[in-house]
Amino acid sequence: MYKLKTYLSIAFILFCGGLFSSLSAQTLTARAQSNTVGVGQDFQVDYSINANGSNFTPPSFDGFNVSGPSESQSVSIVNGSYSQSITYSYYLVPKAEGTFTIAPASITCGGKTITSNSLSIKVVKGTAGNSPQPTTLSPQPGNSNSSSPTEVSGDNSNIFIRIVPSKPKVYEGEEVTATIKIYTRLSVESVQVSDAPAFSGFYSEDVTPTTKGQLAPTKEVVNGVTYMTATLKQNVLFPQHSGKIKIEPLTAECLVDQPVKTNNIFAQFFGGSYKRVSYNVKSESSTVDVMPLPKTDKAFSGAVGEFTLKGDLDKNKIKANDAINLTVTISGNGNLKLIDTLPIRFPSDFDRYDPKITDHFTINASGVSGSRTYSYLLVPRHPGNYKIPPVEFTYFSPKKKGYVTVSIPEMNLDVAKGDNNSSSVTVSGPVNKEDVKVIGSDIRYIHAGHEAFYRTDDFFLYSFPFFAGIFAPLLAFMGFVVGRKRYIEMNKDSLAVKKRGATRMAKKRLKIAHNSIAAGNKEVFYAELLSALNGYFSDKFSIALADLSRDMITTNLTQKNVKPETLQMANKTLDDCEFARYAPAAVTGNLEEVYVSAVNLITLLEDEIS
Asked: 28-42, pLDDT tens digit by residue?
């Protein structure tokens, strides 16, 4: 009874409020965010009416680029006083300087046509007034009247995707950053990339910014229309051949909350009603014009960018058969990862080993920068004064549009006579001592001791090796026949074979799941992990995979006298996999730890079931 009285009181208040609202004056008011703006600076104009209306007609907005409108409704009840308003918002961008008058707008309300006030806007050169705060790509608060999205395919003027290369024309091997951006005038709830370009013809490094939660939007004007834009993907590209190389389109699914008109007063009171719409947006392809590198007679390393070169010997004086390290470092920005080994000439008396390569790279939207270090282990075999010729490194500079050669000057090395009674080699640096050969045992002297003599009647015929050679193949054939028969006997029962191979097949499937960890694909990882576990239980218990269930797994494990803690671990692992399969966005944790836990589970089950 108390609740009924409460509902009747609320209905009475709303009825009276609506009656008083209809009796009050109905006005349409125009407001500008700023009366003084700069050329190219966007600002907002709102038209608000304090009652329900229809057939809203905006002015022509001559002299401005226009986007909108966006419609919002509000209802308030304060001390029993009811009020309602509808606001139509436009974003304007002035085209030229001057003073402009925006004519009144009109709307039909209660059978009458109501007009707003006019607005005077002064447009100056540069930027004036306060710029509006950027809105986010996340949805506005409100009530959604659609639980399942409506599919809308294609691209339109309200939401689209662009692939923007940082340079339209580059040289072969020169880095260029491809930025994939989404532009929208709608309230975007989420963006899921479904088909990313493969960047065929490029060596690619992914530098997509990692953002937690929502995308970080900015405001951008395209063809006089203001859009919110955010970066979906960024890649640093190095073209591998000349010509016009095409970047394939990108496809993404965007979930959008769009406002809809409603007569539901409670929906209006809580911020309006929204409809969930799914846009399958596909970008246009983009093309990068790649110029070929000019011909050169120099020993070109394949490096394109801006680089420096330095080298250093860790010692200048050593003994023969001792090892030294020559370190050569290339630093700068460009295609460092694609540089071949350096053409260094060493004295013929030196033993040299393949260099150890150490990279220190920084990869971001600006490109690839850092250093690559080559460490050479050298072992001089004879004493003397040696010279390592100058080391030259030639690269192509896009800034200078030509080849540049940098070099390390000639290096001197004084090698003293080594110890005669020492056959060891002193090694320092990053190369293993096992890689170094010791010279000193390669010359064999005339043997001065007693030699062994053989009898003249010592023949191979009828000797032990003679009979062993005859009977060994026969014994080997008999062993093969016995082994083959045993193999056929063991594999006669297909169910027993599946049971014996259950662990091997499970670990093979787990390896497939492990490969998806490096790609960070949680959905594929958990799907493969669940497939591996179900396949293991199916083979182990001789149950068809289609008939396998959680109850059957638990029953069979209990019958095999599996420990309670192992049974609990199996149930938890299966629960985690099934949860991640249907709600991947809600899953957190280290995938490597989950993988190790699954491997340990199968190991425990093998021990306890056996």
From this structure: 899 988 888 888 777
